[in-house]
Design goal:
CATH superfamily: Glutaredoxin
Largest sheet: 6 strands, mixed
Strand order of the largest sheet: 2-3-1-4-5-6
CATH class: Alpha Beta
CATH topology: Glutaredoxin
Radius of gyration: 18 Å
Length: 141
C-alpha cells in the first residue's frame, strides 16, 4: 500500500495500528471487540473479559484454537450509558457480566446470536429501573 501511495511504510502502519477496523492478520468469524476504558471497567468489563479468556484461553489480539473467535481490547465504543459493551463484528451487546457474556458466547458457538442491544432487557439507554423521563409521568388531576 505504501509503495502504491508513494509514502513511507511507517505512515501506513501508523494508520493500520491506530484504527481498530484495520487488522494486520486474519480474525475469526466472530471478532470480539471489548471496551475496557473507564466507564466499561467501572461497570464490570473485567468480568466480561475474564469470561472470554476462561472459555477460549485467549488474550487481547489472539484467536481461539478453533479459529472462530478473535478478542481485541478497544477504546471507547461510544455507548458508555449501557456499559460494559462487547462489539461482535458490527453488533453491540450491552450490560454484560460474566454470566450474560457466557450466554452470548454459547449463542455464537451455535451460530444463533442473541438479539443485539442490552442483554438486561432495558430499552435504549433508559435507567436499569425503567424509564425516568418526566414525560412518562401522568398529569395531576
Amino acid at each position: 500500500i505504501a509503495n502504491k501511495l508513494d509514502m513511507a511504510e511507517i505512515r501506513v502502519l501508523e494508520v493500520a495500528t491506530f484504527y481498530t477496523m484495520y487488522n494486520l492478520k486474519p480474525v475469526g468469524k466472530y471478532f470480539l471487540q471489548a471496551c475496557t476504558t473507564t466507564p466499561c471497567w467501572l461497570r464490570g468489563s473485567d468480568s466480561m473479559m475474564r469470561c472470554i479468556k476462561d472459555r477460549y484461553g485467549i488474550a487481547s489480539g489472539e484467536t481461539s484454537d478453533c479459529g472462530r473467535f478473535t478478542l481485541l481490547e478497544v477504546e471507547c465504543l461510544g455507548a458508555c450509558v449501557n456499559a460494559p459493551i462487547l462489539q461482535v463484528n458490527d453488533d453491540f451487546y450491552e450490560d454484560l457480566d460474566y454470566a450474560s457474556t457466557g450466554a452470548l458466547l454459547d449463542s455464537l458457538e451455535a451460530d444463533a446470536p442473541l438479539p443485539v442491544g442490552s442483554v438486561s432487557g432495558r430499552s435504549g439507554s433508559e435507567a436499569d429501573g425503567g424509564a425516568t423521563s418526566l414525560a412518562a409521568l401522568k398529569p395531576a388531576e
